Amino acid sequence: MLLIWTLSLLLGAVVGKEVCYDRLGCFSDDSPWAGIIERPLKVLPWSPEEVNTRFLLYTNENPNNFQEIVADESTIASSNFKTNRKTRFVIHGFIDKGDENWLQSICKNLFSVESVNCICVDWKGGSHTGYTQATQNIRIVGAEVAYLVDVLKSSFEYSLSDVHIIGHSLGAHAAGEAGRRTSGAIGRITGLDPAEPCFEGTPELVRLDPSDAQFVDVIHTDAAPMIPNLGFGMSQVVGHLDFFPNGGKEMPGCKKNALSQIVDIDGIWEGTRDFVACNHLRSYKYYADSILNPDGFAGFPCASYSAFSENKCFPCPSEGCPQMGHYADRFPGKTKSEGQTFYLNTGDAGNFARWRYKVDVTLSGKRVTGHILVSLFGDKGNSKQYEIFNGTLKPDSTESNEFDSDVEVGVLQKVKFLWYNNVINPTLPKVGASKISVEANDGQVFDFCSQDTVREEVLLTLNPC
Ligand SMILES: *[C@@H]1O[C@H](CO)[C@@H](O)[C@H](O)[C@H]1NC(C)=O
Ligand SMILES: [Ca+2]
User: Fold this and answer.
1) Segment 59-84 mean pLDDT
2) In a 10 Å sphere around its CB, with 0-12 CB exposed, 13-18 middle and 19+ buried, how is residue 13 labelled?
3) Active-site residue 280, yes or no?
């Protein structure tokens, strides 16, 4: 008996098990699908019936109520699916579901900028289980998406270049699997914080990688290690363009207390979700906002986030900066190489878009200890006041800083300067800025001058010079 057990165990380890399905083919637990260090458990995916992958089609004609389509010519033909439009799939992750608000809100934002077939992929049948099982079930989801895409191609001569799959967490790897099964011919895959456990460091076969589509872009928002930080997302670069907003590990606004999370605009469930996985969920919120802010998420090439934070990577190089999110595909060098890495800052609550500016202030007037602030006024809007320097204000010295404005000011028209004493100063000194230069992220520089000096807390306006 023991011998038979041992034999079957040995054979099992070598041969592996396999399950086969009519439409989708066979799925084995051979290495690297299972039985490797990153995924030690030999687990097979559930059946297509159990995973129950559903395609919820929203279009500009039906933005609020989906039509459920299946991979069959006549149902697609009788739906609002339009073959002359791009098709964007949105795939959710672990313990999530396809009729969650965030997927539909990505579609709704898309409808405000383009005509598109937006398909929310629901696989809650396979996502509400243990994590290891869910990592296997995404193979079925990927196969189902690939199968539908193949039907689009064969029945409607639909071009795979017009397919874009947006996947969050485990959904990012499901997108990778769909791409692998269509030989990388799909136009684009966007990975929104691709899941780390069972994927980080694994062979390209089982995870999202740049060969899965013509263009792969990735947003990392929870790249701290799983142990001990409970970071759900990959830190590994897995696309052509990999964006690390706010450094990719800790998102601003994610350290709020439980109560402020629960009264979040998205409602109670979203609040609870945010409380446990706020960083991880930021990736799809950034994507949703990026659709409406075509230049509000410029990503800067830089050696590291600390170098970026130390203002060493501004402005954009001559070829420009790619936009994180929806408009990443506009970047001319997008597929020049794999693993191109970019850094940027975002806001701490929606709207997350930010516009980075560099400001140089040449001081005049008295020498005092204090801090200075500058606000920008342009043809598109006016910024808040941002601190440029804090310390000894020396006449004729130039102090520089960069900041991320929540307003794009456009072509600058004037700037305002303000300063404060750090300690009470009874001599009522006056300080000014003889020149302020403002640089936008495209390298355009605007110069402003003034001969005046002002007391603390008094605004000084500088005009173009
Ligand atoms: C400026 O620096 C001083 C001393 O380092 C600090 O106490 C003060 O809070 C700073 N002020 C601002 C507005 O950052
Ligand atoms: Ca892959």
Assistant:
1) 97
2) exposed
3) yes
